[in-house]
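Exercise: predict the fold of this chain.
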Amino acid sequence: MASDNELFDWCVARPRWQQEAIRRLTTKPALDTDELKQLEDAVRAEAGITAGKAPDWPALTKIHLKAGNQFAPVTVLGSIGPLRNIDRLAAAQPPLKFAINGVTLIYGPNGSGKSGYCRIAKKICHCLHDVTLRGNVFEPATSDPREVSLTFRVDGDKTRSVLWDDRRAAPPELGRISVFDSDAAGLYVDAERNIEFLPFELALLTNLAEVLRILDARFKAEEAALNKAHQAPLPLGYEKRTKVSALIGALKADQNLPTAQALRALAAWTEKDESAFQALALELSKDPILLSKVKEATKSTVETLVADANTIVDGIGNAGLAKLKDAREKAAATREAAKAAASALAEDSAVPQLGSETWRQMLRYARDFAAEAYPDLQPPQLATADTCVLCHQPLDGPARTRLVAFDEYIEGRANADAEKAKKEFGDAARAILELKILSSQEIKSRLVNFVEGSPPRQALADKLERFYGVCQERHALVSTAIKTVEYAGLEGLADLDRSIIDELLVEVTVLANEIKGLKPTTDETAKRLKRQQEFDELEARKKFSADIDTFVARRNSLDLFLKTKACVTACSVAGITSHITRIRRKVLTASLQTSLEDEIKALDLQHLPLKLADRGEVGKSKVHIGLEAQQKVGKNSDILSEGEKTGARPGRLPR
């Protein structure tokens, strides 16, 4: 046994609330709901979750430990029976009585009822496997319950008599008695079991560990709920480096958690703060760097409009229309020249319209097809082939000569000039048709920053709007003429006024000078950065003042989370489990091993390499009988005989 001083010294080193739990557990194996609630409240108060001081509990003394050791309850079963409606056991026979001291031997022939009474004992006491009581299966079934009269006493008290039926739980005092038979032998030799018949000090600490486990489960459930609640996002908008963002960054479940007072102090917002905030906002709105960027963007916009206006004037101004007219006339003249060249080919031809566009296109396709069909012949394959690719008839001499002349015409200078002039006119016409003329609303939108409240610039913007309006009308007129090939309406048009372009170019120079003048000095830049930081601080504080209740609530929840974790730590069973293991191996394990060895020897089972192993698990003591086989064995019972299984469960091993 562990010394009284050793157990007492360990107990008084525990927190005050655990000492109170130990004091109460010296007189009973478990605490009731109210007692657990008192201990839970004490743990909360110790962690700072609730206010108030701990209850004025009596101090734990050595007398409490000795008293508990002396009065551990012992239950003795006195008798079973009379009984009714169980197996084929006679209802009128006298009770089966058990000796208070010593051993009671029960014997009789087969069918006399020994197994029936054993089943009753396993049902009302503790047994490792489930037992179901039945009536007489050889008679019609009845709804009557199975009834048994029982007598027992606890710690030498007066004998108690109980009429029990299988619709109710058995008296809890009888659960201290363990029933073992051959049906349970395999369970003992195969499975790891709790050691439940323990010396007082081990039982006391095991019961204390169970109390801590119950409290630990409660606090862990609260911890999990708080952790889930903390997944909800906090208000955004605090990305800039400020005192507020630094304080928000410290809202973590650790020892550096800021106080609620610190949060509210930073969230205080006054009229003076608002005035300073507005003044800084106005000052920073004139930021030269920002203004410079705006000016640069405006300058780029004006330059784009200048380029766009030049493109429009070049395309549909009088000079552009003159170029279009020249290209159209050149295309017509070169086509007529090509037709004249082709007319010589038509003198001996019975086919009219030689030299027309359709004819030339047909001939080009015929030449390309002949080259594909007769790749091995000398070009032009249209004439060197033996068969005409157009009519599929044999080619005679005159036909070959005519096709050679046609091919030379297609490849000739007159035709090439006609094709080039046609392309140039087509490109010019297409460029005009694809011109994009901005609308009045688009001009206004682009020149918002350019006008900037300036009457002269507003007048210039209005003039540019009118210019684009004229260009839209002119573009529509020219596009219609190109599509309908009716160009008479373009004669005598007034030219576009390009003075607006010159005025915009002047403004580009002015904007460039303004941008140059906005470039700040090093001192101005440093001062501006400082003012910007002041503004960011005020802006963050203003927003924080609106969000403060949300952040304080999260801060308080994190504080509760930390304190709840402290409660979980305070209820940890690990230290008690380790101490139980040390005491168990000092006062119990050796005696169990000796008991096992003695009974193995007495039962002549030395041929079995059996070994006892024990360990602690969450405050409970576990024991296992290991079979040291040379090969892997699933279950010990798979290779042990019935007698070996029974013998390998010594009477002193735990139930």
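Check your answer against the key: The CA atoms of residues 336 and 418 lie 8 Å apart.
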